[in-house]
Specification:
Length: 164
């Protein structure tokens, strides 16, 4: 796998340079630069527009108690598409434009769905303490706990009246 990643990092810039040369010879240098800038701006606009839609669908999915996996994957693909469009280059721009298309993202999701796991258990971390979802376990640091009984039971904000 590392060899394939290395080959991509070497081959992609070379392919992009070759594409710039070919496009520049066909439409001119200024038009090539302008097209590159337009693609970058379009990537930023599309990422914002589609990203807001995905956030809304993700919120609806969470409110109905459904699994957010599909919408999270689509959101990640939209971010990747925007990043690919922001990178100067026609090949990365083409791949970015393809990822903005919902049918292409859905096809990618079908491929990823069997290979991805979405965890639905949340842990809350605040002030160094963690609490399980059922509310029964509170993790305290060493300086937050002592074995001695409190002097006044009524002054503790943590007392439970049902246990008294």
């Amino acid at each position: 796998m590392p060899l394939a990643v290395t080959a991509i990092f070497i081959a992609l810039p070379l392919a992009e340079i070759a594409t710039f040369v070919i496009v520049g010879s066909r439409i001119g240098v200024l038009a090539t630069v302008a097209l590159t800038i337009v693609m970058s701006v379009a990537g930023a606009v599309l990422m914002r527009w589609q990203g807001l839609g995905i956030i809304g669908r993700l919120q609806r999915e969470m409110q109905t108690g459904g699994s957010p996996g599909r919408e999270l994957a689509h959101g990640a693909m939209v971010l990747l598409a925007g990043a690919l469009l922001l990178i100067p280059g026609f090949l990365t721009g083409l791949l970015g434009l393809l990822l903005f298309l919902p049918p292409v993202r859905e096809l990618a999701w079908r491929f990823l769905r069997t290979r991805a796991t979405v965890l639905t258990e949340f842990r809350f971390a605040e002030f160094g303490a963690t609490q399980k979802q059922n509310g029964r376990t509170i993790d305290l640091g060493e300086d937050e706990f002592s074995h001695s009984a409190p002097k006044s039971r009524g002054s503790s904000p943590w007392r439970r009246p049902e246990l008294e």
